[in-house]
Amino acid sequence: MSNSVKFLTKLGLYDEGFITEHTNMLVCDKNDEGIYGVGNFVYTYALVNKVGMSIGEYAHFDRYCYPKNKFSLDDMIEMLKGWDGKTEPPAGWIKYKGRKGEYTPEEAK
Question: Is the pTM of this model over 0.70?
Answer without folding.
Answer: yes
